Structures are given as structure tokens and as C-alpha cells.
Amino acid sequence: MQESSKDLAGLVVPQAGRLVGTDDPWEPYRLVDADGVVVAPVAAYLRDLQAAGRSAATARSYGLDLLRWFRFLWAVEVCWDRATRIEARDFCRWLQVAGQPARPHWRHQGEPATTTTGGRPAGGRRPYAASVRAHSETVLRSFYDLHRDLGSGPILNPFPLDRARRGRRAHAHRNPMDPPRHERTGLYRPTVPSRVPRSVPDAEFNEIFARLGSHRDRALVAFYVSTGARASELLSATQGGVDPGRQLIAVVRKGSREIQELPASTDAFVWLRLYQVEMAQEIPRGRTRPLWWTRRRPARPLTYHAVHRMFERVNEQAGTRATLHSLRHTAAYRMAEDPGLPLTDVQFVLGHAALTTTQLYLTPRKEDVVRRVLAHHGEQTRQAAQRAHPVVAPGYRPEAWEVLFGNGPS
User: Fold this and answer.
1) What's the CA gap between 83 and 374, in Å, rounded?
2) Hey, what CATH topology would domain 202-362 get?
3) Tell me, what's the pLDDT at 392?
4) Fewest CB within 10 angstroms: 10, 70, 190, 254, which?
């Protein structure tokens, strides 16, 4: 295979094509090119995902990864089934260096799309995180694996496994007491650093909660920080799934799609009742109706992006950097730090498949570590000052002490 040089520094990748959401349950998302034509190989891959039981949110996430790949191929004028390891390598380099493109506001979707150059991120664009690049590499490898097996794609996967591990048996020489490692690592998969879950300090949370502008928003945040539910899970709650008497709210779990009742705080149900009284004449009633609605007329079911934007505005006003998912981390830390609450109970509430995932919340919070270390330094300084100026024992004159130890004139 002869390598053809590509000038990635001068490469311009137009924001052509897009991932379109539909109301069709058989095809929740479809990828279209610049002319609006459906990209057939991606459609086949998304159908395979649906057959494997993946949710529409997974299809959207995988579709966005494929959209970035096809935009790169269109820019370098290489057909998807003619892509080689060279294009895969250059694409991974481009993701690492070029940075994220500037996306237009939803009110200006019809305006001409911007382009992304291969040089340093223009306009202060942030580079793609290692987790995003790793996810993209995994999706594209599985995409080409499918079409190789179907006979519709290249025989050699452009995104191969690491050459140092292809000839080894997975999990060989592993301690059976240790959790299994992900040894099927792609050749171009970046190393993803392990991150400690970030919780919201109490003072910062109080500042955010004080700036919430409606009973609905206060109820949402109170439920997020007391149930530990994911943002999309809490929005799946229905009016019939709320049981104030038992302090339970039923949500649809993200992975298993099972309905699970989660306990919540009393304050959360108080704010929920105030929200329901306030919107009693505006929202439709019914046990199967959504629980959360927009405040703008006409009322519509509340979406994840609307809640995300609401929380962003509150953060801008408070001068904080918390996220919706950090509220879940905050709830997990609060429950894990309670000695009367077993860790298995925390695992059940959070919906973790493995207890090792819940054990991450036993890691000390950053603000607690900083406070204790600063207190340690203060104590060390105080003890050093006492050692520098010892107390004179009874029966000795201070002036004789200074002459004896050289601290004064002899």
C-alpha cells in the first residue's frame, strides 16, 4: 500500500450533510449528504444497531461519529468503501488537531455552514476530547466490521486493532479477582484518562438553586440531586409515575429501558406540587402524560436540550461551571458518604451494572481534599513556629537562655 501525502494543515472540511431526526420509530435518525440523499451504508448500520436493542439516543450518538467521518471523506474525495488505513490515520490526526467546528444557533439553521480547517483551532476552538475520539474510533471500526461481514465494504478494516494485541488471547494471564480490562484496543484509539466524578460543592449548589427562576426548575434540580437520576431518565417520568405518599418517582432507565421507582427528598415533592398548581390550567392531564412541560405557550413536553440550556443560563448568572450530570454525581457522593446507607443500595438507586462503578464515589471529593491539605499546611506552619520559639522552662531567666543558645548578645 503506497501512502499518498495529504496536506492536513490546509485541508478544509465543509460542514456538509447532517444527521436528521425523524418521527419514524423504524428509523429514528438518518444521515443525509449535502444533496439531502440518504447515505445507504450508514442507514444499514443504524438498522443493525436497532436490531441489537440499542436506543434512539445511541443511534444519534453513533450517527454523529459517522457524520464526522463522512465529512472528512468527502473533503479528501475518497469513497467510504475505498478508505484505507491512511485515511483512518489522517482522520484521527485531524480530530486531534483541527478542533470542533463552530455550530450555528438553532434559529439560524438555514444560514451557510462554516468550515473547519486542518490547522490550529481557529477562533479558539476546543480540540475534541480523548473520550470523543476514542468513541469515534470504536464506532467506525464496528461500522466497517459490519460491512465487511455483509460483503458490502472493504475486506481490510481501515480501523484495525492494535498490532501488538491481535495475536494474543483476550484477558490472558489475568488475575480472576481483578475486573476484566478492555484489551481489544484499536490501533488509533487514544488513551482516555480516568476522571474522578465531579460533584457540586454545597455553597455552589445553593447559589445555583437560589437563581432558578420557576417552580418547575426548582423541582427538576431537587429531583436530580436527590434521586441521582440521569437527565434523560427524569424527563421520562409521567404524571402517573409520581407517588408523593411514598416519596417515589418512576423513571425509565437509560440502558435497560426498565421502569424503576426512585426515592426522592421531601423538598423535591414540595416544589413539584407548587409547579403542578402553577401549571394546572396549561398542561394536559393524564396518567400517561409527561410530567415535565415547557413554560412557553403552547406547552410542549420538555426535552433534554431545553433543560440543558436552562441549566447553562443559571450557571452563567451564578458564575459556576456545574452541569446537569454533575447533579447526579453530587447525589451519588452524598449517598455514598452516608455511613448508614450500604453501597449496594447506592448502586441500585444509580442503576449501575457493576459495584466497581459505584465505588468511584468513595474517592474523596476535590474540594474536601484541598480543604484538608490546606489545614495540614496550616498546622505544619503553626508547629514550626512553636519549635522556633520554645517556651522557657521555670527557673531560667530569658536573658540567660538567649546567651546560652546564641540568640542574644553575649
Assistant:
1) 55
2) hpI Integrase; Chain A (1.10.443)
3) 66
4) 10
The pLDDT assigned to 121 comes to: 44
Strand ordering across the sheet containing 259-263 = 242-243, 248-252, 259-263
For residue 374, the SS3 value is helix
Residue 254 · residue 350 · CB < 8 Å: no
Q: Return the axis-axis angle of helices 202-210 and 215-227, rounded to nearest 10°.
A: 160
Question: How far is Cα 323 from Cα 329, in angstroms, rounded to an integer?
Answer: 10
Residue 228 contacts residue 221 (beta carbons within 8 Å)? no
Rounded Cα gap, residues 177 and 232, in angstroms: 34
Long-range Cβ contact pairs of 352-361 (< 8 A, separation 24 or more) = 353/255, 354/179, 356/179, 358/332, 360/196, 360/197, 361/197, 361/329, 361/332, 361/333, 361/335, 361/336
Please report the beta strands in 230-318, taking only residues with DSSP state E, as ranges in sequence order: 242-243, 248-252, 259-263
- In single-letter form, the type of residue at position 127 comes to P
Calpha distance 350→356 (Å, rounded): 13
In whole angstroms, what is the distance from residue 359 CA to residue 367 CA? 19
**Which helix (DSSP H) or strand (DSSP E) does residue 31 occupy?**
strand 29-32
The separation between the first and the last C-alpha atoms of the chain, rounded to the nearest angstrom, is 88
Predicted model pTM: 0.72
CA distance 387 to 380: 11
Supply the DSSP symbol for 353.
Answer: S
Residue 79 CB contacts under 8 Å (≥ 6 apart), including other chains: 73
Residues in the chain: 410
